[in-house]
Design a protein that fits this description.
With 152 residues, the chain is mainly β. It has 1 helix and 9 strands.
Length: 152
């Protein structure tokens, strides 16, 4: 009994450095049936860093800003990026990615990536849809993806 209590009380520090974030299932979008973004098997590099007891992550998008809350073993990060296409069309698309995961160990987490896409401008309903998950997408566009990550 005391060994079990000791094991459940143990804490760990996630491995710091470059991780591969991998999409487990195609994103399910509420705004379209098709998707070109976040397909199963797709992966990209992200960074996990910590300053005990704070754990943070850079989700690997550019440009990006991130804000993370860590309460062992859960990590919740929000990253916002803005794509301004006003040089070619009247559209500014804002991506808000929320990573909501649980560390299974110091070298693996699993959970969900929630994506919210917003568009501002007069071309959002026609030409700007080429930047959405599908040409038939509507705005705003919300998606949910199962993900996992491990260090490189």
């Amino acid at each position: 009994m005391s060994l079990l209590l000791l094991l459940s009380a143990c804490t760990f520090a996630p491995v710091e450095g470059i991780w591969n974030l991998t999409v487990q299932t195609d994103t399910v979008w509420d705004c379209t049936l098709g998707s070109e973004y976040y397909a199963a098997g797709e992966s990209w590099e992200m960074i996990v860093y910590w300053d005990n007891p704070i754990v943070s992550a850079d989700l690997g998008h550019d440009p990006a800003s991130d804000d993370c809350d860590y309460s062992e073993p859960d990590l919740n990060c929000t990253e916002t990026r803005v794509n301004d296409y006003t040089g070619s069309v009247d559209a500014v698309i804002t991506w808000v990615d929320e990573l909501d995961v649980e560390f299974m160990s110091d070298s693996r987490f699993e959970g969900k990536l929630y994506t919210e896409l917003y568009c501002e401008g007069s071309d959002c309903n026609d030409r700007a849809l080429q930047f959405a998950p599908s040409e038939t997408a509507t705005w705003p566009c919300m998606g949910e993806t199962n993900v996992y990550a491990t260090p490189q």
